[in-house]
Design a protein that fits this description.
It contains four helices and no strands. By secondary structure, it is mainly α.
Length: 125
C-alpha cells in the first residue's frame, strides 16, 4: 500500500473519530460548553492530521520513531492547550481538554493498525 493511500486512511479515520467524539461530548455538556468541545475536537483532529502527515512522509519505514514523535507531539499539544490555549480562548477548561484528549487517545489507538496496513515484512527466518 502506498504512503498516499495510508495517509488518506489515517485522515479519514481522524475525521470519523472527531465527529463521533464531538457528537458524544456535545450531548453530555450544557449548551454553553459546546464551543469548548468543538475547539478541543477541532484542535485535536487538526494536530493529529498534521502529525500523521509529517511522520508518514518523514519516516515511512521507521514506525517506532514515528510513534515516538507522535506521542511527544500529542503531549506538547495537551500541555500548550492547558497552559496557554484554553485560558486565552476563555472557554471552560474541562470540556475543551477532555474532548481534545479523547480525540488524541482514540486516534492513538488506531494509529498502529493504520500505519501497518499494507506494510510488508521482508525479513525471512
Amino acid at each position: 500500500m502506498s504512503t498516499g493511500t495510508r495517509l488518506v486512511r489515517l485522515l479519514a479515520a481522524v475525521v470519523v473519530i472527531a465527529a463521533v467524539v464531538y457528537l458524544a461530548a456535545s450531548a453530555m455538556v450544557p449548551p454553553g460548553s459546546r464551543r469548548a468541545v468543538a475547539l478541543g475536537v477541532g484542535f485535536g483532529a487538526a494536530w493529529q492530521a498534521l502529525v500523521f502527515a509529517v511522520t508518514l512522509a518523514a519516516l515511512p519505514d521507521n514506525r517506532l520513531a514515528a510513534f515516538g514523535i507522535g506521542m511527544l507531539a500529542r503531549f506538547l499539544l495537551v500541555a500548550l492547550a492547558a497552559l496557554v490555549g484554553v485560558p486565552a480562548l476563555g472557554v471552560p477548561m474541562a470540556p475543551a481538554l477532555l474532548s481534545l484528549v479523547t480525540v488524541l487517545f482514540a486516534t492513538t489507538l488506531i494509529e498502529p493498525v493504520l500505519f501497518a496496513a499494507g506494510a510488508r515484512n521482508d525479513t525471512s527466518r
